[in-house]
Amino acid sequence: HTWNSSVSQVGPYIAVITNRTTNVVIRGTMLFSVGVFLALVLNLLQVQRNVTLFPPDVLSSVFSSAWWVPPCCGSASALIGLLYPCIDHCLGEPHKLKREWSSVMRCVAVFVGINHASAKVDFANNVQLSLTLAALSIGLWWTFDRSRSGFGLGVGIALLATLVTQLLVYNGVFQYTSPDFLYIRSWLPCIFFAGVITIGNIGRQLALYECKVVQEKIHQD
């Protein structure tokens, strides 16, 4: 009843739009905004601890971040968040876990916590840190996702993002302090994997909400 009443309250300002393309644009814009926000907050954590070093001229900008970081992360978030529901639909693999916004918010909190650990917690060595973050990231997937498509996409996109980061560092766009794996930190793929799972969960929840709102509108008509 609580879910239905919340849909009824919020429904009128979204449910008037039933055009699929427009709904995708709305979801993409929301995901882009989430990606930009997370990029600013998480990059601030990394820069404060001198994990990442940007050239001095870019640090005067907002949140000590290079201007291109938030838009790139926002675009990637929109793409990933829209891709996850599509893959689920194509594979016919519905999400088995209970889907609620509270669960999505917990997933975001755990993701931010993993980032916080990578920047603030001191480990004996990088191998110990990388193994800990890998375990936390897989735990995040097991707790909030558990789908094969989610795991596969997470690993694939994390590897691609790691490769892009290596190219950026190699070309001097920014650098990591104490790199221990091909110009970067060895735990970076774990962070990317956890981020992909988190954004995928948000994308799935937005798609589910859109579906419920449209069904509600059809039922009312």
TrEMBL record:
GO biological process: cellular response to insulin stimulus; cholesterol biosynthetic process; SREBP signaling pathway; SREBP-SCAP complex retention in endoplasmic reticulum
Protein name stated in the entry: Insulin-induced gene protein
Keywords from the UniProt entry: Cholesterol metabolism, Endoplasmic reticulum, Lipid metabolism, Lipid-binding, Membrane, Steroid metabolism, Sterol metabolism, Transmembrane, Transmembrane helix
Annotated source species: Denticeps clupeoides (denticle herring)
Subcellular location, principal: endoplasmic reticulum
Superkingdom per UniProt: Eukaryota
InterPro entries: INSIG_fam
Gene designation per UniProt: INSIG2
Lineage: Eukaryota, Metazoa, Chordata, Craniata, Vertebrata
GO cellular component, one term: SREBP-SCAP-Insig complex
